[in-house]
Amino acid sequence: MVPRSRRSASSSPSPDQSTPDAEPSPAERYAAAKRRAEVDRSELGQFRELLGFPLDDFQVEACQALERGSGVLVAAPTGAGKTVVGEFAVHLALASGRKAFYTTPIKALSNQKYGDLVRRYGADRVGLLTGDTTINGDAPVVVMTTEVLRNMLYAGSSTLQGLGFVVMDEVHYLADRFRGPVWEEVIIHLTDDVQLVSLSATVSNAEEFGDWLATVRGDTTVVVSEHRPVPLGQHVLVRGDLLDLYAGHLDPTAPGVDPPINPDLTHLLRRSNREEPGQPRRGPRDRGGRPRPGGGRPGGGRPTPRFAVVDALDRDGLLPAIVFIFSRAGCQGAVQQCLAAGVRLTSPAEVSEIRRIVEERCAAVPPEDLDVLGYWEFSDALQRGVAAHHAGMLPLFKETVEDLFSRGLVKVVFATETLALGINMPARSVVMEKLVKWDGSSHVDVTPGEYTQLTGRAGRRGIDTEGHAVVVAHPGLDPVQLAGLASKRLYPLRSSFRPTYNMAVNLVAQVGRDRAREVLETSFAQFQADRGVVGLARQAQGHAEALEGYAKAMECHLGDFPEYAALRRTIAAREKDLTRAEAQARRAEVARTLEGLRVGDVIEIPVGRRSGHAVVIDPGGDAGFDGPRPTVLTIDRQVRKLTVADVGTGVRTVGFLRVPKGFTARVPAARRDLAAALRSSVGTSTGPTRKDRPKGGQRAAADDAEIAALRRRLRAHPCHSCPDREEHARWAERWARLAGEHDALVARIAGRTGSIAAVFDRICDILLRLGYLERTTDDAGRSALQVTDDGRWLRRIYAENDLLLAECLRRGIFDELDAPGLAAAVSTLVYRSRRDDQGEPRIPGGPGSRLGVALDACVRAWSELDDLETAHKVETIQPLDAGLVEAVHRWAAGRSLDAVLKGSELSAGDFVRWCKQVIDVLDQVSQAAPHQRLRDTARKAVDALRHGVVAYSSV
Predict the structure, then answer these.
(1) 3-state SS class at 440
(2) What is the phi/psi pair of residue 426, to 5°?
(3) Residue 864 and residue 909 in contact, taking contact as beta carbons nearer than 8 Å
(4) Would strands 612-618 and 601-605 be described as parallel, antiparallel, or unpaired?
(5) pLDDT digits 0-9 by tens, 460-516
(6) pTM of the entire structure?
(7) How far apart are CA 196 and CA 192, in angstroms?
(8) Which residues have CB under 8 Å from 493's CB, separation 6+?
(9) Rg of the chain taking only CA atoms, in angstroms
(10) Which residues contact 452 (CB under 8 A, 6 or more apart)?
């Protein structure tokens, strides 16, 4: 049963409110008074007295459903107050003597919610469990990250006894590709007597998600509110002037579909583009000639200075504001621009208060680390009322920014999109510098869902009568496209659930393989896949009918035209194969030019983006299918990995340059000196010489005997002389193309049915092969699986690279390492560098040291598992990354923060964040390692890492 309610801006009043349009009758007044009395006597009535503010209709409806014993899914915009429903679940748990767990996706949000609940219920009744913090874990109310609850469920923790309510805040996070599956694991495995409160952003398929929750959890009430408690106005900032996005006669908070654009804005944008110095008259276009819809060329045009944006917001009374810039460097640069321009948004009294708070919060930082962390510049910016906020910052600094902004002392925060997740930092305005962002591989347009999430922070309830979303004008800005982003507030929730090795051994241990498959079939991923099959089957039926029509249209009175068409396709396929073989031969020839390179070889790259001279700093190891991938330093000091695709017709060695011993590409000064020596050594060169690409691909088809025979058969076929041959051929091509699509669609339908269980079966096969599971028979004599001793260790490993870590432990790869060495080795399983051109990482002690030998063994284990997964059509193992090895080893050995980060492009915030993730995995090793000595080493490694800025916690 899934009761549903969807409320818009014109939602109906709650039961204890009356409409002002008509005077109620005495009977109606009596009924309303009776309902109010019932509410006042209920737990909801007592909860209302604690709040001190009236509840909205959707909050009342959701809370009443909870008190009736139903599970609840609440989908509402950011800032609408949906967390009140979660807090009511906590109130019900305490009132009934049961426990409540409040789960969040990130530690910062857990810390914030912990503080809120402690202030309401007291520190003795509220606990906190995150990966690195444990406070009062047996309290009746515990705030935790979702992973902690998942681990409890698999471990059968005694803490689960008496659990009555689980609140899943930001439940739409289950769409996250990396961590989302954890939410579904928790929802599936919670016992039936636990009431689930799911709090989500407004998604377009809330009812579908509610149907799934009802399937796996029982009675669930779905409450959807699309009403923003503070209306949101849409604006564009053009040259310091703030203009409304929509035409003046329109309600800006409810523009409807295809709203008319403000003509003044359109005129000003056109004039601005014409007058922009150095800019082409036409808007930026992609390679196909179409205008780019988002933000023009990345880096194109002259952007409005950030300090000018701040001045405009201040002038129009739109502070405090969050300015989203999709770049860490951009956020820091924006703060520097504001400081250089003399921006000051604070009064003398506010400066004194900010200084006091900053000094108090940062008192725990060792004085010798303050310069390394950029503390003085950070503090100066805060005292002027501006700050940056991004993942590369020290957590202590980020939390200080959040505190000062929530107090109204910091007026402008330049932030990356990570700020949009959960943290309570409402503002009067949200500014977006561009509508294009870097997704790690390319520039992509901001989606309507992302725009809604980012601008959702605009408008402080109880303070602002209206929030403001502002887009800064930039080359290529299309106001119609912006209106589309602003009006499409909903986006679908898609499951990212997938079985893991740890999940498999835990499920087999708890319920057996057959029951485990049934459990996985109840996932939201399979639920969505099964629903999708209905639409696919309808599409397949349409294909079948169209294929019949195409077959009739290509009928020929002279003979079998499908046979004739098949001959034509066979000839075309053979010609394509020959062309591909010719290209592969050329590629192999180019790959041979990359073999045999040595450190110091000066090479000439003839064509392409990287043409010019470069010096080899790492030859790239053994040749693979496409040859080695040498790392080179170019004349303009760029470090690049070369592939066959980068070097055109091949590289040519033109000289040799001595590379200093101990050279590391991570040190800017070292790159500069070597690039200068390279420029000097090739200074007299006339530049790269272009090699002509060898010809011959076209002659291959003409000389091929098989193609010649096929063409003779084609000419002899009766249909070859048909006057309507080409017309028949066009229908035959359509038939062949649609037949291929139809076959693929049928395969998709077959693959979606039971798709999650099929992946689980392949994972179990790998675990069988490696000895983590073994075959046995159950009491009825049927074949079954059981977990081996090695599998029991794997049950305790929840890291992303769970199987690789288990293999390293089982093979004894880490057994001889000391604490710093173990921490460094574990970092390779955790760390993911933001760039792939960092050069060869340095290994403390060199390749022959115990750490170097262990890392080499890790790589071999990874390679074997990767091959095994490929053979079983599974993709879970992540590649190793040694980019953090030296920094972690130094920190665990007791070196200073300055020594750790010196010569590295790693920020202090990133270093602390990765260290905490390494600590989390080391904690698992201390429980899962098969030998006591290694478990002890892991505990020592945790203690060795947990000092200084890494040890800081805000709670």
Answers:
(1) coil
(2) -70, 150
(3) no
(4) antiparallel
(5) 777 878 889 999 888 777 888 788 777 765 677 888 888 899 999 999 998 888 888
(6) 0.71
(7) 10
(8) 172, 174, 175, 200, 203, 204, 205, 206, 208, 209
(9) 32
(10) 77, 201, 202, 489, 490, 491
